[in-house]
Amino acid sequence: MTAQVFFLAAFGLAAVWFGIVVFRTHSMVRSALALLFSQTAIGAMFLVMQAEFLGVLQIMMMATEMSIMAIFMVMFMMDPGGLGEMDMKHQRKLSLAAGVIAFLAAIGVSVFADWGPAATVVPSADEQLRMLGIELLGRSMLIFESAGLTILTAMIAATAVAVQMPAKKEDAS
Amino acid sequence: MSPELLVALVIGAGLFGTGVYGALSQTNLVMIMMGIELILAAALVNLVAFWRYLHPDVAAGQMFVLIVMTVMAVEMAVGFGVAIARFRSRGSVEMEEARELKG
């Protein structure tokens, strides 16, 4: 077993385990932190796969995103600490069956598909960044710009939905 | 197939299955969003693995990862916007109490 396989498996198992913990704990804050650890482990997997830029981006982005999620959990939940051990699940058997079927189907595709020969040489981090920059500002510029516009639209839409409109004043006359 | 690619795809499958279970089983809107985040994370793992072990010289593979990250950010922003609106109007983000949305 190579070191890369070992670390991929170790970080991957950590990611899946923390992903399971998200739905096992009664504490919403712990759920958000478990998801943060899961996403960080995925970022570490990217680093193992020599995608340095994407790994660092994943860890930084998810650290911010999950911190915000934890704050929202505290705001929205009556029992964010999980002390009352509230049950927040429904259709358990159906969900479990769907999850297992999705897992097995994905495993089946992974194992039985012919993926072709594996590449052994990967460009250096500098070269990867240069290639990605040229790709983003060249052939894929329209897609990249569309992604930026989509985020801007989502920000405006989310703010418009969330903002509280002032109540209309009664007409005095 | 290289063992590294197989390991990454199996981990992706595990994240996907966990995310599907979470998105279907939870009653809280924010917890459902967490399940969807896990499903998208599985897509990220698969995309990086395909780029690294099949086509490391094609930068479009990394660009797809950036697009999926964009989708994750958009999902969070819109999801929280809807959650705030729902919380303001009904005082809860429990989906069991949102049956009136059913057509």
What does this protein structure show overall?
The complex is a heterodimer of chains A (173) and B (103). By secondary structure, chain A is mainly α. Among the domains of chain A are: 1-80, no CATH class; 126-161. In chain A, 71% of the residues lie in helices and 0% in strands. Chain A has 6 helices and no strands. Chain A is extended and about 70 Å long. Chain A starts with a helix and ends in an 11-residue tail after the last helix. The model of chain B has no long low-confidence stretch (mean pLDDT 89). By secondary structure, chain B is an all-alpha fold. Chain B has one domain: Helix Hairpins (Orthogonal Bundle). Chain B has helices at 3-25, 29-54, 60-90. The radius of gyration of chain B is 17 Å and the shape is elongated. Chain B is 78% helix and 0% strand. Chains A and B meet through helix 1, helix 2, helix 3, helix 4 and helix 5 of A and helix 1, helix 2 and helix 3 of B.
Order of helices and strands of chain B: HHH
- CATH arch. level architecture of chain B: Orthogonal Bundle
CATH level-3 fold name of chain B: Helix Hairpins
Unreliable runs of chain A:
none
Shape of chain A: extended
CATH top level class name of chain B = Mainly Alpha
Q: What is the helix content of chain A? A: over 70%
Care to count the β-strands of chain A? 0
Strand percentage of chain A:
under 5%
The overall average pLDDT of chain A, rounded, is: 87
Major beta-sheet overview of chain B: none
What is the alpha-carbon Rg of chain B in Å? Answer: 17 Å
In a nutshell, what does this entry contain?
The complex is a heterodimer of chains A (173) and B (103). With 173 residues, chain A is mainly α.
For the structure shown, list the relevant keywords.
A: 173 residues; mainly alpha; 6 helices; B: 103 residues; Helix Hairpins; 78% helix; 0% strand
Summarize the SSE layout with pairings.
The complex is a heterodimer of chains A (173) and B (103).
Chain A: H1 3-24, H2 28-48, H3 52-76, H4 92-112, H5 125-136, H6 141-162
Helix pairs in contact in A: 1-2, 2-3
Chain B: H1 3-25, H2 29-54, H3 60-90
